[in-house]
Amino acid sequence: MHRQLGKLAAALLLAALPAAILAQAAAPPAGKRIAISIDDLPLDSRKPLDMAATQALNQQLLRALQDEKAKAIGFVNEDKLLRPGGIDAGVAVLQAWLDAGMELGNHNFGHLGLGQASLAQVQDAVVKGEAITRWLAARNQAPLRYYRHPYNQTGRNEDERRAFEEFLQARGYTVAPFTIEHDDYLYACVYEQLQDTAQRRERDTVVEEYLAHLRESVAVFETMSSELFGRQIPQVLLLHANRLNAETLPRTLAALRGLGYRFVPLEDALRDEAYALPAAASGRFGPSWLARWARSKGVKLSVYGQPDPGGLTAQLAGKLCQ
Ligand SMILES: [Zn+2]
Q1: Nearest Cα residue to 77 out of 132, 115, 136
Q2: Which domain of life is it from (predicted)?
């Protein structure tokens, strides 16, 4: 009896609720997962690296990740550590990542891509780019197991891709793919050049455009996942360590959470069977792995990658970021 009354009361209550609230309540937790990867540590900047500022910006990134309990991976360019008087500070940045429970990966020495440099040069850059990180990882009982290709160039052709992957595997590396990007380097470049107090309004506009672009981009990559797999695979977001992301990561992560995402380590995302699919050599361009899988599977998608940035950011990028 009580149970029936309870049901009736619940039905009446539901009937009385505004449609919008019902829709919200009815939307199941989507169970979507995303791994956060941040490239170009210790910092990607057009300006000469100020190590104190670099440390502070990394602290902001790490705080945002920890607040969301997101276990991210940071990919290191060790050439950026080799600054006279700056090595200790750079090592401290990497140590801070490990202390915060994050993982570090190799992004090679000098950010050499397989589009410009030879296979032998890039292989050298892998070895040269792991000296400090491997030492640090070992001291912290942390793994060093992922390699992120600069420019996401995986090879000029299949032979080169295969040869490089065999080399990476022999050194204990797994390639770190990504599936979602949203031109953060472009927004970051504009943002970094709008640091005067008088540019506050433009800077705020760039941030709003950046977050809107994130939402639009995520929607496109979700469509690609649906069309390819009939479901939402765990995504891997590609970000860069820069001032813009340091100052907006709390909002970026909140936006992703609002879209139904739960943050998972890269290792968990890569366990999905999607990541075992072949991804053809990238050539010069380094698109999302969703586009690569589509090509390998011979599937035609309705969309390929994020829309072009527009608005004030695109206008200013033409002037400031050539
Ligand atoms: Zn990079």
Answers
A1: 132
A2: Bacteria
Q: How far apart are CA 319 and CA 189, in angstroms?
A: 11
Q: Give 27 Cα–ligand 1 centroid separation in angstroms.
A: 37
Find the 18 Cα to ligand 1 centroid distance in Å. Answer: 47
How far is the centre of ligand 1, averaged over its atoms, from the C-alpha of 44 (Å)?
8
Q: Is 68 contained in some domain?
A: yes
* Dist. CA 61 → ligand 1 center (Å): 17
Q: d(Cα 92, Cα 77) in Å, to the nearest integer?
A: 14
Please report whether residue 295 resides in a domain: yes
Query: How far does the centroid of ligand 1 lie from the alpha carbon of residue 201, in Å?
Result: 29
Burial class (CB in 10 A: 0-12, 13-18, 19+), 234: buried
pLDDT in tens, 250-285: 999 999 999 999 999 999 999 999 999 999 888 788
Contact 235, 34 (CB under 8 A): yes
Task: Please state, in angstroms and rounded to a whole number, the distance separating the CA atoms of residues 295 and 270.
Answer: 19
Q: Positive or negative, the Cα torsion across 281, 148, 219, 247? A: negative
In a domain, 61, yes or no: yes
Residue 3 lies in a domain: no
d(CA 182, ligand 1 centre) in Å: 14
Q: C-alpha distances in angstroms, 57 versus 54, 64, 67, 245?
A: 5, 11, 15, 9
Q: How far is the CA of 99 from the centre of ligand 1 (A)?
A: 23
8-60 pLDDT, tens per residue?
A: 444 444 444 444 444 445 554 458 999 999 999 999 998 888 999 999 999 99
Ligand 1 mean position, distance from CA 292 (Å): 19
Domain interval for residue 260:
29-320
Compute, in angstroms, the gap from residue 4 CA to the centroid of ligand 1.
Answer: 61
* Number of domains comprising the chain: 1
Q: What is the CATH number of the domain that holds 128?
A: 3.20.20.370
